[in-house]
Specification:
279 residues, 11 helices, globular, binds zinc ion
């Protein structure tokens, strides 16, 4: 199989009334964990590679190659997605590396600049057959950014943004944040409903780790197609390493078990997202 774009992922989500998970990769074990979870369930999944990771840790060409090689053996559709592309150059690097989908996150720009830069990215990415996710409103980070309705996505502005940029999916801010929530987040479903009524493109929920199971399902029923998960995998890997690394005689055995631990987090989420239709 070849990597699919976000269009196929969104179509799948709509046909089955399910959410599709995008899981970020920090290394090859994480990539393997995501792939194994998809193979075990036959459910589609997106590999996510954030621009900040690819600048710090590894070459995007290398990670795209690893993902592409895995996808050749895949049973279900899989995409290679740039998560939180923040710069024009970062998005171009992802396009050259063969990503099948990109996010351009202009949410920290003023509105008109976000429209202008996102529209430019869409024009270029679409010419390569690559889909684009934009962000409107500001998702931010738990514990760092204040969560106020002022930073939430406005339905009327979302309609204008999608029309003027031509994006394939929109990341919304409806009470969700990145990182570790203090307490259980409260999502603004009425706002989500109003956004869904106004726009036809895919909808994405960032900051998935820590959202309650019923809220995930509710968000999918209200029109969320793609859900991003990273912190839950990071936490599981960190806790496993802290508690058990000293018990291993070999690094290889540790690595195998670490991959299983991360795979289980992915499995739990993709099964949950696939069960949204059932009340
Ligand atoms: Zn995000």
């Amino acid at each position: 199989m070849n990597p699919v774009t976000m269009t196929e992922i969104i179509d799948y989500s709509r046909r089955h009334t399910v959410g599709v998970g995008m899981f970020n990769i920090v290394n090859m074990e994480f990539a393997r964990a995501i792939f194994d979870a998809s193979q075990e369930t036959g459910l589609p999944v997106m590999f996510g590679i954030p621009e900040r990771f690819m600048r710090n840790f590894y070459s995007p060409d290398c990670m795209a190659l690893i993902c592409r090689e895995m996808i050749k053996q895949a049973k279900a559709p899989m995409a290679i997605h740039l998560d939180h592309g923040k710069t024009f150059d970062g998005v171009m690097i992802a396009l050259r590396a063969g990503f099948s989908s990109v996010m351009f996150d202009g949410s920290s720009l003023d509105y008109e600049e976000n429209v202008k830069q996102t529209a430019e990215i869409v024009k270029i990415a679409h010419s390569f057959g690559v889909t684009v996710e934009g962000e409107l409103g500001y998702v931010g980070r738990a514990g760092t950014d204040e969560l106020t309705p002022d930073s939430f996505t406005r339905p009327d502005q979302a309609e204008d943004f999608v029309r003027r940029t031509g994006i394939d999916a929109l990341a919304v801010a409806i009470g969700n944040q990145h990182g570790r929530y203090q307490g259980i987040p409260k999502l603004d479903f009425e706002r989500l409903r109003a956004i869904r009524e106004r726009i036809a493109c895919g909808l994405v929920l960032h900051g998935g780790s820590g959202i309650g199971n019923e809220d995930f399902k509710e968000a999918i029923r209200y029109g969320i197609n793609k859900i991003n998960i990273y912190t839950a995998m990071d936490t599981a890997a960190k806790d496993f390493t802290r508690n058990s690394f000293g018990n291993y005689a070999s690094y290889l055995d540790y690595t195998k078990d670490l991959t299983t631990v991360v795979r289980d987090v992915v499995l739990e989420h993709i099964k949950l997202f696939a069960s949204a239709k059932t009340m």
